[in-house]
Amino acid sequence: MADPRFFTRRGPFTLEGLASSAGARVATGTDPNLEIVDVAPLDAATGHDISFLDNPKYLPALAATKAGACILSEKHVPRAPAGLALLVAPAPYVAYARIAQLFYPPSRPRPGVAPSAAVDASAKLGKDVAIQAGAVIEAGSEIGDRTIIGANAVIGAGVVIGADCRIGAGVVLSHCLIGQRNTIHPGSCIGQDGFGVALDPKGYVKVPQLGRVIIGDDCEIGANVMIDRGAGPDTVIGSSCWIDNLVQIGHNVRLGKGCVVVALAGISGSTQLGDYVVVGGQVGIAGHLKIGSGAQIAAQSGVMRDVPPGMKMGGAPALPVREWHRQTVAIAKLAAKTKDEAGQ
Amino acid sequence: MADPRFFTRRGPFTLEGLASSAGARVATGTDPNLEIVDVAPLDAATGHDISFLDNPKYLPALAATKAGACILSEKHVPRAPAGLALLVAPAPYVAYARIAQLFYPPSRPRPGVAPSAAVDASAKLGKDVAIQAGAVIEAGSEIGDRTIIGANAVIGAGVVIGADCRIGAGVVLSHCLIGQRNTIHPGSCIGQDGFGVALDPKGYVKVPQLGRVIIGDDCEIGANVMIDRGAGPDTVIGSSCWIDNLVQIGHNVRLGKGCVVVALAGISGSTQLGDYVVVGGQVGIAGHLKIGSGAQIAAQSGVMRDVPPGMKMGGAPALPVREWHRQTVAIAKLAAKTKDEAGQ
Amino acid sequence: MADPRFFTRRGPFTLEGLASSAGARVATGTDPNLEIVDVAPLDAATGHDISFLDNPKYLPALAATKAGACILSEKHVPRAPAGLALLVAPAPYVAYARIAQLFYPPSRPRPGVAPSAAVDASAKLGKDVAIQAGAVIEAGSEIGDRTIIGANAVIGAGVVIGADCRIGAGVVLSHCLIGQRNTIHPGSCIGQDGFGVALDPKGYVKVPQLGRVIIGDDCEIGANVMIDRGAGPDTVIGSSCWIDNLVQIGHNVRLGKGCVVVALAGISGSTQLGDYVVVGGQVGIAGHLKIGSGAQIAAQSGVMRDVPPGMKMGGAPALPVREWHRQTVAIAKLAAKTKDEAGQ
């Protein structure tokens, strides 16, 4: 059970109620009125908990579980121990996620403006907005209904944030327009100047950055993510993108919808990603490239050319993964041969 | 045109006025009194906008532009469509940057101390300083004339900041002396303890970090840049350095003037860079090295040895770029050969 | 001498007093009552300073030093110039660290709550706690005796921090339990949601993150370190860990005691490190791996498999260092051969 100092549990719920919320069905022979009080992993669950089986490597844990109920796919039903109540779902982990959300909905601070927050008189606050202690809301900004602005966050002049967003503590936003239902975790900075510099014999000349950052809906943006605003065009993050911690996104970059960018990756200026591109951790992508929809870039790769849609790439400089693996194997063989020849 | 919620445009300006500010000249046959109201890219500009041509790959856009005026180099004058007003400059992008600065000077908050800022009575504030909401200015610090301290920034005890600096929201400064006209973007932390640890059989012993961070003039320091203070000597950033987001600079590091460090790079303790060194994104440089003036390090390289002045390096471990490319080619050939032999 | 704007020096101390604090002994022929007023490097020290020799490459500096006293190991005693007072210690750098701590103990703000801090009425503050300007202490949190909460830091609801901790300016803590004597440098975010997402044809579904972050005692956590809370299990940082700036630690990761993680490294979700593991700068470690106690991972490596205890690894994908070096040599030879054949 989650630590009650940090998490407030709802429920109990009947299996039938859980099934309908999660897009699952109650298995034949399972009592739909069984009451469930919590979620737990297979190996820690007890009689009133619901667990899930997604990865078949946990089938032994299924056989041994003391859970009261389990979510699994049709094909694993015969593997469940007798007497275990079952919910059947095509994607058990998704169903688990939905059920866990029912038991543990995100906590909400009470609406209102904390006394130590500084809200400019010209800012527009929607219904039931919560502005937490020390937050600063500058002139002309707009905060959508039910959006939460975390403690000591700074919402710059003119910034527009849609409804039902969660802006973490210490976040700094400027020059950006943000849609609905986005979560931005603590410490992220969005909308500052990009790296715009013109080289001059007498020194560097700063190029004014005249664009914005535009973020769609339903994005999850990690902690300490840096997204620079556009230089003239905008920097655009499509809807439903998931961006992990400590990611760098340069000016004019465009992400389509549903892109996933893992921690410590950097996407250089003016590069465009299609939809559902996956960028692994610590990947670097050079500037002015096009990465096609559905492409996947392995962790730590260095992408220096355009990537066609659906292509899986790896290595630095990045290659199609088959070629990358072939190179890795060839190098290993070469080194082994050298070793043999040397009699080492 | 830049979004008026975020940018305030000045002007109009005559071509002659723009030319003289930008170090350009009005071309023969162009009306020097033509009024220009905005800047825009070649493909989006309309009759009262000025655009620029720098990269010859945009010559077709020049031919088709609807801009009222264009900045270009002497050699491209014959390629301009008839009737387009022209400013001639040796470095058109630099001239554009200067003109864009005229139309869009950085916005300035009104001078003064926000009511929710906490300024220690012993701090010295220069003329027309702006201390924004929630900022904390600790004892004995000094803020130069016209410098702006962003919302919720923290200026630690004894820190000295010169005139005309812009310190972003949420920046944390301690143990540092900062020159004039520097911009530090949001979330950066400068002057904290470096990674100073002595290994002892009974555990790690912290080595007091007794130096400072010294920053010259005219630097641009990105968002969430970490610069640790010196261990005894100082950490030094020369004038006119450009540091991108999420860069790590260890204790005792010295950067000469005009160095450029791209996002997610890390420079380990006690390493010294000469002047105008360029460090690519995600580069790692080991500690206690000397990187000569004018050296350039390709993105994602790992530098483990001293680099002579002017040398271009790439790869991990980093090599002169010619050798690095030769290795890349040799590996590709080897893998192709293996493939042929296997009949794959 | 350290800049008095930032550092307050204690002392003077007698050599005998310093020796007993540092686990050193006064050498035969050295006056134990000699008064020392400061620490300094060999080449900058003057007659009332104490210096140290650890790395033999500084033996010439020892010969030439003007220091009043020097800490060194037994074997280097004969190399000291005549008349130099000597402290003998098995690990001179450790002894120096202890002596430097005596002269320059970390500064402490006056205890108490700054007027602009926002402390929830239900928070429990220990004895002599200092809550600096603009800090936010949310409901139900507990701050141990003598702990310092830096300016504009945010301590989330229910967070527990032990005694004698130093929480830097702008730090954001949530969902975490932190032991004693930990230092967390500015800008770090600990306890936010990990990257928990279930893939669904209709979009991504967020998986509630129901664990915490548990940190032991005596840890040093750098600036802008991101530690996500567990998904169900906890994320655990053992005692005496040293974590450098800009490090990413994913959900459910476990570090044993005494681990060292250098800047810009990323450890993916559910990976477990034993005790005293050393992770170099910019290393990436994939998820769900076990890294044995005492393993050492060279900078920029990419670890994709379990690592046995005590193993030294390097490269991407990471190999035992001997194999990694063999590959590096084999590639260099291959490229040289290609060059010869081409007559280049």
Helical content of chain A stands at: 10-25%
Residue share in β-strands of chain A: 25-35%
Given as residue ranges, the uncertain stretches of chain A (5+ residues, pLDDT < 50) are: none
Classification by helices and strands of chain A: alpha/beta
Strand order, main sheet of chain A: write it out: 8-11-14-17-20-25-28-31-34-37-39-40
The third-level CATH topology of the domain at 174-322 in chain A is UDP N-Acetylglucosamine Acyltransferase, domain 1
Can you tell me the overall shape of chain A? flat
Describe the structure using short key phrases:
homotrimer, 344 residues, alpha/beta, UDP N-Acetylglucosamine Acyltransferase, domain 1, 14% helix
Short note summarizing the structure:
The structure is a homotrimer of 344-residue chains. With 344 residues, chain A is of the alpha/beta class. The first copy, chain A, is built from four helices and 40 strands.
Describe the model.
3 copies of one chain form a homotrimer. With 344 residues, chain A is of the alpha/beta class. Among the domains of chain A are: 13-103, Udp-n-acetylmuramoylalanyl-d-glutamate--2,6- Diaminopimelate Ligase, Chain: A, domain 1, CATH 3.40.1390.10; 174-322, UDP N-Acetylglucosamine Acyltransferase, domain 1, CATH 2.160.10. Helices cover 14% and strands 27% of the residues of chain A. Chain A has 4 helices and 40 strands. A 12-stranded mixed sheet of chain A has the order 8-11-14-17-20-25-28-31-34-37-39-40, with helices on one face. Chain A has a 10-stranded parallel sheet with strand order 9-12-15-18-21-26-29-32-35-38, with no helix packed on it. In chain A, strands 10-13-16-19-24-27-30-33-36 form a 9-stranded parallel sheet, with no helix packed on it. In chain A, strand 39 and strand 40 form a beta hairpin. In chain A, helix 1 crosses helix 3 (92-103). The longest helix of chain A is centred in the C-terminal third of the chain and has 21 residues, at 321-341. Chain A is flat, with a radius of gyration of 25 Å. Chain A starts with 12 loop residues before the first strand and ends with a helix. Chains in contact: A-B, A-C, B-C.
